[in-house]
């Protein structure tokens, strides 16, 4: 069994020595650090299973260490140690990501019990990861990145539908990775050895799109000098991905519906049809139900395409995936632009990236990272390398007009911050409270006070 590795952070040498001796007797491999800066340096080169950290320390206190550790992607349970009955600060640390806290002076058994509880939690998490390894932890999802529950649900849904011929509709904002999801559906299923053919329905005019999809015979129109198979025939046995299917003209929607219903395709100029075995996956950033209501999209085709729906969450709804995405994008972008080594991302830069709304989603994040790498000369990707538009916290402006009341301005500011936090977290009050750095109870009180229920 692996010996758990623990990092003890305290400015008191005697306490560090006492804890390290005690925990080594309990079967832990213990390292020590005299302050937050030293601890962060050790974390940059080693992955610890557990961290014990004092709150009151000179220079960098425990709370600031916690913030920087969490923002840099440290996932080990962090137990805070506090004296003088400073429970409020310890609770605030838990709201910011600490696993638990323990008050000084403490008995040996108290430390051991807290760590055993943390071990049990980690064991359960590992069991859960193992159970979901098929959907969350393997390369079979080909480029899909994220451990947020909404993404884990997507992986699970992909696996359920991968081996079926069921048509799949992928909905999501621009830049969320809809084509990556379509490729994952194809490559994790029984059709993976057959072709994956993609076409953007909004990138071609109607006449060209028809020829691309269905093909044509020699002499079917001016310039048709030979027979040409369409994308349906090219994808035979595999998957045809119709990106931006909401842009397809109505006349072509009728022909697409016929192919889906009959499993046959007829080239332009041909007199006979041929059977095709194609799994159709389509994607759109539009609200197809609204398009149907407005008459711009056929209702019968909508029902044919929307047999199995995959709704891709926007990046702002899975902020906890940003550290992982940033690490991978920094590595990939650095290789793409010819940098020998990928720089490390400074905590403040990562904090700013996590605070931004990302209207362009993962595609925008990738563009920002690549530009930052061009501007960044050293081995650290610093905050100043980021785009000016990545302003960290959402810009909130207070325009009092003739009313110069500070109390009223503070009230307006609180209302706006609460609204933005709830918007970012999809209405999850627990997560919103953590983002606002207040207790869940305080948030509930303010929601009632400001009539934001």
TrEMBL record:
Which keywords has UniProt assigned to this entry?
ATP-binding, DNA-binding, Nucleotide-binding, Phosphoprotein, Transcription, Transcription regulation, Two-component regulatory system
Matching CDD domains: AAA
Keyword Cell wall biogenesis/degradation applies = no
Q: Name one GO molecular function term.
A: sequence-specific DNA binding
Protein name per its UniProtKB record: Two component, sigma54 specific, transcriptional regulator, Fis family
From which lineage does this chain's organism come?
Bacteria, Pseudomonadati, Thermodesulfobacteriota, Desulfuromonadia, Geobacterales
Q: Which Pfam families match?
A: AAA_lid_14, HTH_8, Response_reg, Sigma54_activat
What PROSITE patterns does the entry give? RESPONSE_REGULATORY, SIGMA54_INTERACT_1, SIGMA54_INTERACT_2, SIGMA54_INTERACT_3, SIGMA54_INTERACT_4
Q: Which SUPFAM superfamilies match?
A: CheY-like (SSF52172), Homeodomain-like (SSF46689), P-loop containing nucleoside triphosphate hydrolases (SSF52540)
**Which InterPro entries does this UniProt record tie to the protein?**
AAA+_ATPase (IPR003593), AAA_lid_NorR (IPR058031), CheY-like_superfamily (IPR011006), Homeodomain-like_sf (IPR009057), HTH_Fis (IPR002197), P-loop_NTPase (IPR027417), Sig_transdc_resp-reg_receiver (IPR001789), Sigma_54_int (IPR002078)
Sigma-54 factor interaction domain sequence ranges: 144-374
On whether ATP-binding is a keyword of this UniProt record, the answer is yes
What is the scientific name of the source organism? Trichlorobacter lovleyi (strain ATCC BAA-1151 / DSM 17278 / SZ)
Query: Example GO biological process term?
Result: phosphorelay signal transduction system
User: What region holds the Response regulatory domain?
Assistant: 5-119
Can you tell which superkingdom this protein's organism belongs to? Bacteria
* Chain positions with 4-aspartylphosphate modification: 54
């Amino acid at each position: 069994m692996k010996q758990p590795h623990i990092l003890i952070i305290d400015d008191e040498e005697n306490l560090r020595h006492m804890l390290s001796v005690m925990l080594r007797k309990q079967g832990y491999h213990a390292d020590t650090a005299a302050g937050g800066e030293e601890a962060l340096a050790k974390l940059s080169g080693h992955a610890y299973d557990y961290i014990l950290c004092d709150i009151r320390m000179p220079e960098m206190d425990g709370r600031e260490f916690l913030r920087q550790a969490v923002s840099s992607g440290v996932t080990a349970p962090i137990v805070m140690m506090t004296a003088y009955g400073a429970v409020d600060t310890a609770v605030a640390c838990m709201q910011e990501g600490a696993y638990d806290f323990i008050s000084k002076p403490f008995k040996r058994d108290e430390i051991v019990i807290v760590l055993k509880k943390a071990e049990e939690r980690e064991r359960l998490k590992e069991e859960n990861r193992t159970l979901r390894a098929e959907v969350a932890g393997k390369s079979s999802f080909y480029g899909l990145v994220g451990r947020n529950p909404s993404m884990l649900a997507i992986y699970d849904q992909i696996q359920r539908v991968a081996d079926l011929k069921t048509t799949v509709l992928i909905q999501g904002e621009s830049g969320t990775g809809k084509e990556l999801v379509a490729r994952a559906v194809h490559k994790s299923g029984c059709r993976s050895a057959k072709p994956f053919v993609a076409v953007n329905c909004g990138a071609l005019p109607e006449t060209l799109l028809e020829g691309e999809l269905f093909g044509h015979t020699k002499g079917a129109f001016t310039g048709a000098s030979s027979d040409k198979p369409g994308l349906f025939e090219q994808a035979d046995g595999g998957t045809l991905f119709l990106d931006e299917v909401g842009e397809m003209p109505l006349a072509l929607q009728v022909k697409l519906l016929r192919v889906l219903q009959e499993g046959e395709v007829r080239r332009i100029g041909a007199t006979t049809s041929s059977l095709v075995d194609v799994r159709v996956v389509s994607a759109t950033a539009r609200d197809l139900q609204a398009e149907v209501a407005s008459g711009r999209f056929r209702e019968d085709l909508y029902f044919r395409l929307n047999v199995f729906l995959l709704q891709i969450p926007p990046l702002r709804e899975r902020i906890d995936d940003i550290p992982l995405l940033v690490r991978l994008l920094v590595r990939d972008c650095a290789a793409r632009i010819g940098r020998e080594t990928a720089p490390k991302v400074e905590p403040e830069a990562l904090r700013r990236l996590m605070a931004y709304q990302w209207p362009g989603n993962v595609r925008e994040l990738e563009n920002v990272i690549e530009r930052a790498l061009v501007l960044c000369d050293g081995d650290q990707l610093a905050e100043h390398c980021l785009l000016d538009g990545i302003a960290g916290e959402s810009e909130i402006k207070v325009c009092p007009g003739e009313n110069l009341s500070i109390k009223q301005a503070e009230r307006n500011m609180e209302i706006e911050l609460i609204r933005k936090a709830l918007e970012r977290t999809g209405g999850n009050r627990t997560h919103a409270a953590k983002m606002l750095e207040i207790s869940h109870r305080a948030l509930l009180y303010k929601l009632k006070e400001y009539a934001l229920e």
